[in-house]
Amino acid sequence: MSADVALEVKGLRTTLFLREGRVDVVRNVSFQLNDGETLALVGESGCGKTLTALSVIRLLPDPPARITAGSVVLDGSDITGVPESTMRSLRGDTVSMVFQEPLTSLDPVFTIGDQIEEAITAHRKVNRREARDMAVEILKEVQIPSPRQRLDDYPHQMSGGMRQRVMIAMALVLDPKVLIADEPTTALDVTIQAQILELIRAEQERRQLAVLLITHNLAVVSQVADRVAVMYAGEIVEEAPASEIFANPRHPYTQGLLSSIPSAAGDSKHLYTIPGRVPDPRVLPPACLFAPRCPYVISRCWHDHPGLEASNGHLLRCWNPQPFIALKAVEPEVDRSVATSE
User: Fold this and answer.
1) Which residue of 73, 166, 192, 266 is surrounded by the most CB atoms within 10 Å?
2) Does residue 111 form part of some domain?
3) Domain count, the chain
């Protein structure tokens, strides 16, 4: 493992232990994240993106979820089986996570200052004044105005964008090597989204931070990601540099996601949607998991599960890849035989 690799996940499997039996929700997931790099993990809701991130940082709800195979190597050390006390020392210090909804992540009965200072004193031997000074500096860094005064605010006194900046400040105050950002711009308006993304990018450059960005928003991915890993039904189906994914997507699922992005040309009244839905992990298709929704399905897709094969740095899990042609929405038929009368 080279010195510039901040995070390496190999063969990760996460299992839910339910009354009806074991259900694998993350299967054989592998990826590598280098210092100063952004890897975007994309896919529809229910594809296993957040569970993958929670597995990496060991915050799975146990029971019922548990890592049952694979390894997570953080800054050169395998943390898969380390005691919880060790993980508590690593979370926030070596690896941090910005969660999807800051209002539910921040404690409503404590001030912003209390929460940032607690994160500092849990990992650093500093007194209260030093911790408060560090909190002021990190709030200033994430561009919160009047930072010393805002430390005494409660979460409900801040806007959504400000709360997300506070979450980023808490994640970065101890200068971690890896930042996991789980849908960091959800529920924010477009202008604030752009500001939050620019803030993450600026902090990444300043700190040579490795960022794992979890999102279903491909417009966000196109702005910030160096590489993209596409997840479907708990497994990675395609991985490549971001420029390659947008210029030459090979997997039909990736092509469907890109076809669903609104076009500036506005040549259709309806957006393309991938037919069907992500399968229930308890009842998966027999071979290729995307086969029931795929426009290019062939007989082999129903009998053999495709492996993730590499070709010129492009990883692909598909038996029948096709050149990318943006798919068009099917215009709904209008029954014109019914006459209306006043």
Assistant:
1) 166
2) yes
3) 1
Sign of CA dihedral 157, 162, 166, 171: positive
Query: Which residues span the domain enclosing 135?
Result: 103-175
Which tens digit of pLDDT belongs to each residue from 38-73? 999 999 999 999 999 999 999 998 889 999 999 999
pLDDT single digits (tens) 213-233: 999 888 889 889 999 999 999
Say what the pLDDT of residue 152 is: 96
Q: Which residues pair with 39 in a beta bridge?
A: 212, 227
List Cα–Cα distances, 209 to 37, 41, 204, in angstroms: 7, 17, 5
pTM of the model as a whole: 0.91
Check pLDDT > 80 for residue 269.
Answer: no
Q: Is residue 169 assigned to a domain?
A: yes
Cα gap 215→305, rounded to integer Å:
26
Q: Is position 195 within any domain?
A: no
On whether residue 136 sits in a domain, the answer given is yes
To the nearest 10°, report the CA torsion of 320, 323, 326, 332. -40
